[in-house]
Design goal:
single chain, mainly alpha
């Protein structure tokens, strides 16, 4: 669905660009079509945003990041290890204050 929404969005932008080009070339009768194209563009943008949000929400649910983020336990473990190594090095150098 997301790919289809994005494809529709791209088609609408191309149509809008073509209409603007015709208007700039002096074909003022195409100005009426501009209103419809702008409306379509707005609808396509909203559809793309809605679908993207749906996909992101599903990914968050599937990866355990329901709150908008997922915990990277491997990275947390590595960071704890780095900090412990720094503490050990500082203690060995007698650089840890009481």
């Amino acid at each position: 669905m997301l790919e289809e929404a994005e494809a529709h969005y791209r088609r609408t932008i191309h149509a809008l660009d073509a209409i603007i080009g015709e208007i700039e070339a002096g074909h003022s009768q195409r100005a009426k079509a501009l209103k419809g194209a702008l409306s379509d563009l707005g609808k396509a943008a909203q559809t793309a945003f809605d679908e993207r949000e749906r996909v992101e929400k599903r990914l968050r649910t599937e990866t355990g990041g329901e709150c908008g983020y997922a915990l990277d336990l491997a990275e947390a473990r590595a960071e704890i290890g780095r900090r412990l190594d720094r503490l050990r090095a500082a203690q060995a150098a007698r650089g840890v204050p009481e």
